[in-house]
Amino acid sequence: MVLAAGITALQVAANAYVSVLGPPETASSRLNLTQAFNSLGTTIGPYLGGLFILNANASSAETLQKMSTGALQAYRVQEASSVKLPYTIIGIALIAFAVLIGMFKLPPMPEAEKHGLHGPSTSIWKYRHLVLGMVGIFVYVGAEVSIGVF
Fold it and tell me: pLDDT for 12-24, tens place per residue?
């Protein structure tokens, strides 16, 4: 759920930006291309994560069933601790990537700026299409993540 919420927030913010980066006639093509990369990442990510993060010499189910309770507990603790360093490295790399992106000056989006009738106190939750779009993306990403996990 946390992953789906994070990806939803990212996509809601990024999709609006991607749609105004070029001519309006090609906005749907740009959005489809970005979504294709999201799906590619969802497909390849678990495989690469298993390949690089998880221990390649995992025991079979039969071997695990034959272990005593103490040995099984020690095996599980060792397996859990084996992912600490890779996830720490991934976290540091993502923070560095976020800082790097934050340092870039992105082109302005005058088409997306608020003009006219709505004041600064207007809540984004009053825009029905935005809320329904967020719900749609959340459900889609939740399904996509669930399939990957399965």
Answer: 778 878 888 888 8
